[in-house]
Structure formats: structure tokens, C-alpha cells
Write a structure and sequence with these properties.
16% of the residues lie in helices and 23% in strands. The chain is α+β, with helices and mostly antiparallel strands. Helix 3 runs parallel beside helix 7. It is globular and about 65 Å long.
């Protein structure tokens, strides 16, 4: 499906004008925030509010719906009891949708949590016997959640007193954890579903990329750093029209998505975490700007010249050239502007495809379009029969950077993208092997919420 748009020149001029603006004042860290796997200084000390990954894809078994998944709490050691991992009851967890391209949320799904702790002074145990159902009296600690949907029409409560799937204590305590998870899935109006609970971390990569890019000679590859660790997941499945501009996914199939955490402070709730595209804060934003970048909203991105320059003149290709002698692509990198800030459309930049920019929506006001960092998804692209882990770069248009599926190899895709593969239309052969971690260690589920069941075995084993 190729969507056509008009008024190409005004769109291009608006993008160029917005990206040339500068306002360093916007980067003052009014709050303490960052996101992804410990990649920013402040959030590394606040894991319950650390948003590790965001996924968005057309549901493979229900293609009239979209599934959104956001994860928190990196590096959960499965046997880390007796106080297992929980969502923060003093925070608000959000997934936000921009469907008209102005970089402001049009739909917000918000989860808040409360504890039910029946241990008191009687025991230190999480459970005092085998847990066979989500409401088993032997489960002494559980969390509940409320899910609200915010739109321009107002606020609707979708779930009242939903139950969070517990941390997986182990086979003796929870012999059928899959049953507990299934019981924790809540039904929503109009055929949607919601889930909150523990899962195996679906992100797979070798984090030794930070040791001089895999040891300086590609010798440090092939080890899934996140193998065995869990996260806490929030997942949502909703009909496409609920996300689309004017509730019409046929005319307006492209949405932008990001997730945030708002933490309570004496002066009120403040955003401490923000995540759209994977790896942006890890390998695009410099260390001195990470915390502040994650405290702002996407509509401010285009005014931050210091961050925009890190997209148009990225650091990673220079590092690759210095270490591996692979020439860095010429700058400015307008192809990366499309991937990270505008979405991919023929009218937006050098990538000759109409894929996932909100300017492709027929009812969008192109004059209000604003470049911004978010994960963009074209809901009109159907699920791939044979998904390719390299996504769009391998011709699989349902994959990253058109949204993000659980199985998309975003490390290998991102390295190829910064080396110019999207613009050249072919992979960089010298880096084609990537980090040699091509799949998650645990299988994904075939139905909602799709994330793998959590690990219950210790990461460190003899």
C-alpha cells in the first residue's frame, strides 16, 4: 500500500525550519530522568521507573488490532527474593500516541498500581504455599492496577482493580505459571486486552558493544547479555481505529508512540523516563544530555540543536571508522532524520519510500507537522508471514523501524542504519554478522501478551 500526499514543498520547508531552530534552555534538567537499560545516569539508580524497551506491532493473530508493549526494571534476577520486583505505586506508567504529527499525545493509556500486602509481622515470605491461581490465598503479596485512557474527549477507566501477574518464585511455588499469567489478562471494551506482570526480557543483544565496539576486532560477540533476566511488562491490545486520527485507520494508518514514567515528588508528578525508538538515548544522545532529554516531551525535540546534530552528524559511524576503518557516510545524515525524527516518507527526505510518517495520514494538517523522536507504526502494513529479524532493511516492511516487533534485531538493524544501509538500499557487508545474537533465549508467546514467560532460574549457575 502506497499512500499519496500533497503539498510536498511546505512539508519539507516546515521540517527544515524546525530542525534548524535552537533552544538549549529546553535541556535544563528540570526533573531527574532517563530510560532504557541503565543508559542514563540518574535513572540507573531508580530501576522501578526505568523504561527499558517499547514495542508496537500489528497483532499477528488479530490483525485488526495493534499490540503495544512497554517494559520496566532492567536486569531482574529471577531468584531475587524474598522481596520480589514490583511496579512503583507512587508513579504513573504511560503509553502515548500521536496520530496527527504535531508531536503531542492524542491518546494516552495510563497505569497506576497499588499493593496488597498480607504479610504484616507474621512472615517474610512472598507466598506461604503453592500458588495455583491468581487469587490463591497462599500468595501473600500482589499488586493491583487501574488503567485509564485519556483523549481529547476526556478520561475513561478501562480496567478497575486489575491484578498484576506475580513474580515467578519458582516451580515449587508456582508449578503452572502460564496459568497465572492467563488469569491476569484483563478484557477491555471493544475487544481489547490489557496485561501487567513479569516477563523474560525479550531484548536480545551482546552489550559488549560498549567495550570498543565488540572488543575492537569483533571478538566480543555472540553472548546474549540479557539471557535469564526478567523485566516487568505492560501490554495493551486495542483495535486500530482507537489509535488512529479521527478513529479511521484506513485513511490515517500511521501513529507515533512513546512511553513515559511520571514519578511523584513533593511538587507533583514529574516525568523521569521516556522511550520511543530503541537505543536513541544509549548511542545517539551524549552523556551530558541524557537525563534532560528524557525529561522533555517530543514536541520540544526539534528545537534542541545539540540533539538534532547528534542525528545529522552521529558519533557512532565515526567510532566505527576509527576502530574498523569502514568509512563513515557523508553528513548531514538526512536519512537518519527520517528514521528518528520524521518517519519515512518520500516527501520528508532521501529514503525513497512512503512508510511510516504521520504526514502520510490523509486527514493530518501538514502545517502542524513537527519532527520528533518517537516509534512510528503504519498500521496498514499486515503481519509478515515469514518475519525477518532485520525488518525493513531486509524487505520486511512490518519490522523495525516501522514499529518494533519482539523479534526484531534492533542492534544489527541500528548499526546498519547508522552506516547508511537505509539510504544505500543494501547492507554493509563488513558488519553484516552484527553481534551474532539473533534471537531471544526464550520463545515468544503466540498470543497476547506475546512476551516470553519469566525465567525462574538463577542467572548465575554452576
Amino acid at each position: 500500500m502506497e499512500l499519496r500526499i500533497t503539498r510536498r514543498t511546505p512539508i519539507v520547508l516546515a521540517i527544515v525550519g524546525a530542525l534548524s531552530a535552537s533552544s538549549f534552555a529546553l535541556l535544563r534538567p528540570e526533573t531527574s530522568g532517563a530510560s532504557s537499560h541503565r543508559e542514563a545516569p540518574l535513572i540507573s539508580g531508580d530501576p522501578r521507573n526505568d523504561n527499558t524497551d517499547l514495542y508496537a506491532f500489528v497483532s499477528p493473530d488479530k490483525p485488526d488490532t495493534v499490540t503495544l508493549v512497554a517494559n520496566w526494571i532492567p536486569f531482574e534476577e529471577p531468584t531475587g527474593g524474598p522481596n520480589f520486583y514490583t511496579f512503583d505505586t507512587r508513579s504513573r506508567y504511560n503509553i502515548k500516541i500521536d496520530n496527527d504529527g504535531d508531536a503531542k499525545p492524542d491518546v494516552v493509556y495510563q497505569w497506576t498500581f497499588r499493593d496488597e500486602d498480607r504479610r504484616g509481622n507474621a512472615t517474610f515470605l512472598y507466598n506461604n504455599g503453592q500458588v495455583t491461581s491468581i487469587d490463591d490465598e497462599n500468595l501473600l503479596f500482589r499488586q493491583h492496577y487501574t488503567l485509564k485512557k485519556f483523549t481529547h474527549r476526556g478520561v475513561v477507566t478501562l480496567v478497575r482493580d486489575g491484578i498484576v501477574a506475580p513474580s515467578d518464585v519458582g516451580e515449587a511455588s508456582m508449578p503452572d505459571y502460564a496459568r497465572l499469567r492467563a488469569q491476569s489478562v484483563a478484557s477491555l471494551p471493544h475487544g481489547g486486552r490489557s496485561f501487567a506482570g513479569q516477563a523474560d526480557d525479550p531484548f536480545f543483544l551482546d552489550l559488549r558493544v560498549f567495550d570498543l565496539l565488540y572488543g575492537g576486532d569483533l571478538s566480543e560477540v555472540g553472548n546474549d547479555t540479557l539471557k535469564g533476566y526478567n523485566v516487568h511488562s505492560i501490554a495493551l491490545q486495542v483495535p486500530k481505529d482507537e489509535l488512529a486520527l479521527r478513529n479511521d485507520a484506513r485513511r490515517n494508518p500511521v501513529v507515533g508512540i512513546w512511553s513515559t514514567t511520571d514519578k511523584w515528588s513533593p511538587s507533583g508528578y514529574k516525568q523521569v523516563s521516556r522511550l520511543g525508538n530503541p537505543l536513541v538515548n544509549e548511542v545517539v544522545v551524549p552523556a551530558g544530555l541524557k537525563d534532560a532529554f528524557n525529561s522533555i516531551s517530543p514536541d520540544k525535540d526539534a528545537k534542541i540543536a545539540a540533539v538534532v546534530k547528534r542525528v545529522t552528524h552521529p558519533e557512532l559511524p565515526q567510532l566505527i571508522e576509527g576502530i574498523y576503518k569502514i568509512p563513515a557516510p557523508r553528513t548531514p545524515r538526512n536519512d537518519l532524520v527520517e528514521i528518528f525524527l520524521t518517519g519515512i516518507a518520500k516527501a520528508a527526505g532521501p529514503i525513497k519510500a512512503d512508510l511510516n510518517s504521520q504526514i502520510l495520514n490523509r486527514d493530518a494538517d501538514h502545517r502542524a507537522f513537527r519532527p520528533s523522536e518517537m516509534l512510528r507504526l503504519n498500521m496498514a502494513v499486515p503481519p509478515a508471514q515469514n518475519p525477518n529479524r532485520l525488518g525493513v532493511l531486509a524487505g520486511d516492511l512490518q519490522g523495525f523501524p516501522n514499529g518494533r516487533r519482539l523479534g526484531d534485531d534492533v542492534i544489527d538493524i541500528s548499526i546498519q542504519a547508522v552506516e547508511g544501509a537505509a539510504q544505500a538500499g543494501k547492507l554493509v557487508d563488513a558488519l553484516a554478522a552484527g553481534d551474532k545474537v539473533d534471537a531471544n533465549d526464550k520463545p515468544f508467546e503466540q498470543r497476547f501478551p506475546y512476551v516470553p514467560l519469566p525465567s525462574s532460574a538463577a542467572v548465575n549457575q554452576r
